[in-house]
Every structure is written in C-alpha cells, then in structure tokens.
Amino acid sequence: DSCTHWGNAMRREAGDEGPGVGNGRRFGGWRSPTSIDGSSGGSDGEDADSRGFFGRASLDGVYRKLRAHMSPTRARRFPPEGTVYKNYFTEKQLLALQGYKHSGADHSITYKYVLSPLYTRLIDFIPMWMPPNTVTLTGLGPLFLVHFLLLYFSPYLDTEAPRIVHAAAGMALFFYQIMDNLDGKQARRTGSSSPLGHLFDHLCDALNVTISGVSVAASLGLGSSVWSVVLVYGCGFLVFYNATLEEYVSGKMVLRSINGPNEGLLFMQCIHYVTAIFGLGIWQQQVATFRGVPLHANNVLMLISIPAFTLTVVFNYVEAGKELWR
After folding, report:
1. Any bridge partners for residue 296, and if so which?
2. Which residues pair with 104 in a beta bridge?
3. Neighbours of 217 (CB within 10 A)
4. 7 CA to centre of own chain
C-alpha cells in the first residue's frame, strides 16, 4: 500500500506523464547507463531529462522532499530509499524502457479526413502545463460517470434509462475519443512522451473497452444474455487483446482503413443516440425468425458483428505471423 502511494506521490511531485529513465540518474540503487550513442534512448529523439519524472529530479531529492512534509508516523510507513522501484522493475526492464520507441500508423478513412483535422485544431485549447495523462483521465471521468448512471437506471441492461442519459453516453464516448487522441499530441508538443505514458494510455483504452461495451449493451437492451457477452468480450475484449498482441509481436500498432478506435467508437455513439431519440423499443422489435426463434433488431446487430470482429482478429494473427516468419 505504502509503495503504491509513494510511487503515485513521486509522479505528482514531478508533475510528469510517467517514468522515463534519466541519463545517468540514480535509480533504485544503480545508475542507468546511456545508450551506445551517448543519448538516453528517449522516444521520438527527445532527451530523457525533459521526458520522464526520473529525469527531471533526483529520486532521492524528491523522496526527501516528500518525507519532509509528512508526519513522523506516516514517514515511518514509507519504504527505505532506493527499494520501491526494485519491487516493480528489474534492471533489464528499465533498460528496455529506455530503448522503447512507439511506432504505428492509422489508415482510417474517417481519421484521415475528419478526425485528424479536428484533433489538430482542438489541441491548441489544451494548456501546455497539463500532463498528457491528465488529458486522458479528463476524458475517462465523464465516461465512468455516465456508465454508472446507466447501470443505476438499467442494472440488468434490459430497461430504458432516461433518454438524456443515453444521449450523454454518446457524448461522453465521443469526448473520450477526442481526449484519447489529444493526449499523444500533448505529449509530443510538450516533450513529455514516455514508454509508461504509452502503457497508461493502453490501460485507459482497456478500461474504456469494457465500460463502453456494457454501456452499449444497456442502450441496446441486450440484458444478461449471451448477446451481451458477444458484445463485451467479442467486439471489445477480443479485438483489443489481439490488436495489442499484434503490436507486441510486430513492434508497431497499425490501424486499418476501418477500425475500432475510429469507426467502431463512432458507431457505438450512434447506437446511444438512436436509443435517445427513438427509445429502447426500436432495438427490441422482431425483424426475423430463425428456425422458429424470433430475432430482434439488437440480436441481428450482434450477429452481423461476429464475422466483423472475427475477420479483424484473423488479420491480427496474419500480420503477427508475418513478423514471426521473418
């Protein structure tokens, strides 16, 4: 508990996006070496001193400053200097963080012609002093709030919430989509990119996959059924997991012409808006029958999604297989 609290306090003290090992800084009792060319191996070529909070201030100095503001009782709960990060990272892992460089591309048609120009304009409204992780969390907060509102009014995902809540769910998801893209732009323009900042972004995306999946299940009125499982674990978890697996194998995140982070999120927002305008009943209308089993509009939508996310996962494995074959 105290280790986690101390790590969080260190991040707040340094006011940075995440840890990036500084050139020659003391780290957990050992000094982090530089790379072969004498640089600190920061992402996008920036110096680690302007990137991670380990590069901005000596760990020992920040540690002593924190302890100076604590009561004696609380200070005794903190671990000895130089031990806390050894509990989380090995020297090999820290060196790997130094050499990490994010690589990827987004080939989405919507991103290229609509969303990217929008993000370029909106980034100017983010103050330079705001850390990139704060940008991400600012988008994640409303998403959590609306999600719990939906669960309050529809605990079993089968009853209609006030229509304003469904509309708010669509707006909150779009807001998160914007902020999730602006955090990377903010990191680059402030020189605060770091490998763990990238990891933090993936963590927030993983939370969004589950939260937004359940929220969409509520807006579709899927209830506690196998269709909700298909939505959350098939369209959400399975796609996200295998995209990350492809990135792990290939070393780059490549989003195709139609993908989840762009068109997928926009489609989910449309579902919330349709429910807000026409009510939950529009998804519960019977539209077909299969072997005597009635199929409602929400069931048909989930059936269509199965080949879509299956094809996406197949592409992930094909691309990962190409990298392993080389």
Report:
1. 286
2. 253
3. 27
4. 20
Q: What is the pLDDT of residues 141-183, one digit of tens each?
A: 999 999 999 999 999 999 999 999 999 999 999 999 999 999 9
**What residues have CB less than 8 Å from 53, skipping those under 6 apart?**
10, 11, 13, 14, 15, 16, 18, 19, 20
Q: Say which residue the tokens 């295998």 belong to.
A: 242
User: What does the alpha-carbon distance between residue 18 and residue 206 come to, in Å, rounded to a whole number?
Assistant: 18
Where in the sequence numbering do the catalytic residues fall? 202
The per-residue pLDDT for range 236-282, each reduced to its tens digit, is 999 999 999 998 888 888 898 999 999 999 999 999 999 999 999 99
Look at the alpha carbons of 256, 262, 264, 270 in this order and tell me if their dihedral is positive or negative.
negative
Task: Give which of 110, 251, 120, 114 is closest to 185, Cα–Cα.
Answer: 120
For residue 41, what are its two tokens?
A: 């191996």
Hey, which residues does 106 pair with through a beta bridge? 255
251: CB partners within 8 A, 6+ apart: 103, 323
Amino acid letter at 125?
A: F
SS3 194: coil
Could you count the other beta carbons within 10 Å of the beta carbon of residue 138?
Answer: 16
Tell me the CB-side half-sphere exposure of residue 241, using CA atoms within 13 A.
Answer: 10
